[in-house]
Amino acid sequence: MLFCRLMPMVFLLSATMLVPPALAAAPEPANVLHNKSNPVEPVQTGRVDSQAFLRGIVAVHLGDDLEAAQAYNTALQADPANMDLLRQAFVRNIMAGNPQAVELARQVDKNIPSRSVVSAMVLGNDAAVRGAWPDAVQYYHRAGADPMAHLILPLLLAWCQQAQGHADAAIESLLHAQTSVLQPFYTLHAGIIAQVAGQSERAGALFEQAQKIMPGYDMLLTRSYAAWLWAHGKQDKARTVIRKLVETDAVLALAGPALQANIAHYPVTSPQAGIARGYVLTAFLLRQQAREQAQQATNPENGAFNQLQFNEAARLMLGFALAMDPTLADARLMLAEIQDDEQHFNAARQTLERVPPQDPLAAVATLRLAVLESANDHPADAIPLLRHLAEQVPGQIIIERELGSALSQTKDWQGAIAAYSRAIDLANAQKRPDWTLLFLRGMAYHEAGDWPHAKADARAALAYAPDDSFLLNFLGYSMAEQHEDLNEAEKLLQKAHALDAQDAAITDSLGWVRVERGDLAGGLPLLEKAAEQTPEDPEVNYHLGEAYWRAGRRTEAVDQWNMALGLHPSPADEALIRAALQKAGVPATTSGAQATPVPAQPAPEQGKHTP
């Protein structure tokens, strides 16, 4: 988005000033910042509670901000003069939503005056929660001197003005900031301020103005405008506005019924809630900037570090938002997304579980939680969530798709086929056929041993996506497995290889079909290349061993088979490998054979032929 590209980089640098990397080295007791205007003498105490400090580092690494805050608080009690510990404890208490962040902000303000932007915002938020609006204005003004708060400052001050009975001045201040890249959002908040102040007609005009200049659909604007339309007797138009919003996103469509049921309720009814929404907007901008930085990064390590910095800054903003409004589902959904990106599974789960069940976005949170469970190898926990969601919000393709995927993970192929079939029927009824659903159901049929239906789905999918290398590989390799029309199978795999020559699974498939056709000279080099690319794939090693055997290279064949057996193959592949070794008349080596069979643990690259 344009407004994200225009964000000054100093915003990021300031936002992360108080947020050290998650695995920062232990703070040196004497490492205290100096400031010309208010110098602070280095302090050497030697009283660091190393156990609590290390517990805090581990908790940060795991994304457990609550545990990290408690650990750093304990460490700080043992060494209250340690400024590094103070910074760590302060930031983690913000992110954990602990009230203690306010007292720590006062300490930061007192001891680190050159870096008190974040503390000023915490103290301003605390004053706003208490209704001490003049104090809030004073703190926000001080924070606004830094580029970090430059973009959000007009929103903070406008809501403070509204709270003190100066709605007209608040609205005018936002409308005069029209040169800002946040013009659509300033206009939106001006409309909400007008509505909260009882200026209904003006609010409607501002909502309509914001709609015209908004770069896309915005949840807060849509809900606010729909509530306004409903209150003014325009119920049909209000429902249409909500319907158009949810039609833009399959996940958001889950919230459609709840949003319609709550259409008459304004999402923001107080200055505190307005300020919270401003912080969510800031976090969103940081997330967008992070994505752009990641796409433009030439060095993956630098890109990952920048992503961490952006995420930490966004989490600070979300911590501010949740301190103002703990029930704000928008903030929790974004926070869980960041935690998931950082592979903090338990933290993301807890964040999603705290979305209030009566919130219109609760169904979205449930789907996100189910997807999170499946992605982290807990499909059995995802399945009941998805089935309950299907009862709450029937007729949703995305729910049936995710249910099919979760059931596939548990190898309930018939259940997966039924779920994918429902999704396909829904897509066809909506005249939006989706070839990926055919592909997924075809793979489930294949795993269930129903090749005729698997082939039919794969061919139907191929008619929609004739140049998808993954689909071509699936169909071509499956035909080779069935020894069915090897000439056509090779043509399909040749096309897949031409589209993606670096994919080891495709290379292996093409090599294997050539070996099956008797073309050892053409197949063996491809199989050797695939084995080099994925040396720990038992299926690839089995194929290479079979090619060596047919080429008369018996010792090398046995070595490959024993290697494959030691890589925890699937039960079907293990049976093939043991049969091959029996054919060779040699026992499996101790590295491959075990007295008690090891449960199948597919390697990361395994299963690309028939996922």
Automatic annotation (TrEMBL):
Superkingdom of the organism of origin: Bacteria
SUPFAM superfamilies registered for this protein in UniProt: TPR-like
Pfam families listed in its UniProt record: TPR_16 (PF13432), TPR_19 (PF14559)
Coiled-coil segments on the chain, per record: none
Alphabetically ordered keywords of this record: Signal, TPR repeat
InterPro entries per UniProt: TPR-like_helical_dom_sf, TPR_rpt
Region forming the signal peptide: 1-24
Start-end of each TPR repeat: 538-571
Annotated spans, Disordered: 587-611
The keyword Nuclease appears for this protein: no
Keyword hit for DNA repair: no
Name recorded for this polypeptide: Tetratricopeptide repeat-like domain-containing protein
Organism: Acetobacter syzygii
